[in-house]
Sequence to fold (624 residues):
Amino acid sequence: MKDRFLTRLRALLGSFNPERWRESLLRIVLRVGLGLGVLVYVPSVAIAWQLDMSAIVIADTLAVLVVAWLALVEPLTFTVRAAMLCAVLFSLGVVLLALVGPVAQIYLLGFSLIATLLLRMRVGLGTVALNAATMLSLGLLGHAAPEMTLVGWGESPTAWAVVTVNFVFVNALLVAALGAIVGSLEEITARERHARQALETEQASLVATNERLEREVAERRRTEEELRASEVRERALEDERKSLDAQVQHAQKMDAIGRLAGGIAHDFNNMLSVIAGYASLARESVPDSSELQSDLGEILKATERSTQLTSQLLAFARRQPIAPQVFELDEAVESTLRMLRRLVGEDIQVMWKPGRAGVVRMDPAQLDQVLVNLAVNARDAIGGVGLLSVETSHVTLDEEYVRMHVEAREGSFAVLAVSDDGCGMDEATRARIFEPFFTTKPIGAGTGLGLATVYGIIKQNDGLIRVYSEPGRGTTFRVYLPSALEAEATVNRASTTVSNIGGEETILLVEDEPTVRELTARLLERLGYRVLVADGPRAALELSAAHAEEIHLLVTDVVMPQMSGRDVREALTKERPAMRCLYVSGYTADLLSPEGVLEEGVHFLPKPFAPSALAAKVREALAT
Fold:
């Protein structure tokens, strides 16, 4: 109950603001004065009405109304309201002093004290002077209440002055004491306020300094994190640069090896052509019962094995002519599985996982060659019982992947993956597996051209091959082949045969290698053809100019001094547009497109060749 009463009382009086304590004090005085004034107003008016003191009724009524207006409405500034309250107290004091008596001095004293509290001590001292003048005037003029006029006082100005001086002394003493107390309190409050403001300023400065330090610490942390991130990025970029440099060096080395291999294959094929050709001629002239038949047969077998080596070198050098077709990779791989199972043996399980790789454009024979070489490599790595996994998939290589792999390019690719659970490889071995003649097998157990051939075929078809291997954890080769349009998929692996017969047409033979030239002319003449033999491009042009009759076929080497075989053909067909052409070479760089594809309508016979192959290609060229 007590707490509720105090709460309501505080709500009625309003909150006290120490910073503006005079305004709060005025509000409290007005509300308390209004409350007490209403309680006093009723009996005061009733008594005054009975005593026929209308002036008191009017004064009390006006005082209550003014206080109520000041307390409830608060329409004016603080100074005006304080002055009006003091005026009310002074007016009541004057009225009561004139009509009632000594009680009026309370109002005059209250007038001075309220004025001191609200309007400071200078105003309070002014009110003391005003009170003194008012009392002295009322007393001397005889307007004071009868109770204020003692015997003889009314007739003695000196006595009335004494009364006034005593009141003024008490009034001035209270005003001075109250003003001094209030001044001291204000000074203390001001010092406290200044100290608090200084403390708040210092606190704000400390907060600002702390925030600045926190920002600096956060900025320093961000800087350190950025430096660490920058160092990480620099290390990553350095690692990436080293990786790219290694890839570039590897690609340059492989390209140089390819050029060397292609050049060696060209010269070696010329010698193999002579060996195989003369061995074939000798075998035809020796009776079947002669012991030379078997010797010459061994020579031809050795020549055939050597031809396979040069063919692998050309495949690595990307100088092997191809006949690309568009076909479904999954179907093509599946058609070779039976052959692969026979190749790796019964101890190795072949697992096939098709993945809708899509269609590719390449020579189907090259795909078979890639699968066979990878399967043989896996078989040798397993060396007993194991698992060979063949799977396909489809991926899209993005810019990020291409940036990390210099040999790759963006686009859609069909992926052929061949994995084994064999012995695996270390990093040094992985770096050299695609080099020609590099092998980890014992001497005589392998040529070291299988993976080099795979590498050349994939590069010739604008693809990418990646190897993943660790010692004891097997190996995975992933072959990326550019995707082709499905509408172009037309698999056709049928081979055509040409009848091995001769003819009577005139053939212009151009060959700069004497032994090959002599052998080729002899073989053509034995087939019944009339042969014009030229030891080089200039001789060929002179022979053509001197020969008035028709020349049906030009048989020319590709790589020769002065002019290439293509240049010879272009020069001769200007005068002889109906003349056919057959290119013969062990190095086809002059005839191939960037993808290694022979141009449409070009007839080509690779060196070394058998007499039957020469006869077939000549008839094929003449028939077109």
In short: The mean pLDDT is 78. The longest strand covers residues 386-397. The CA atoms of residues 327 and 491 lie 5 Å apart. The chain has 17 helices and twelve strands.
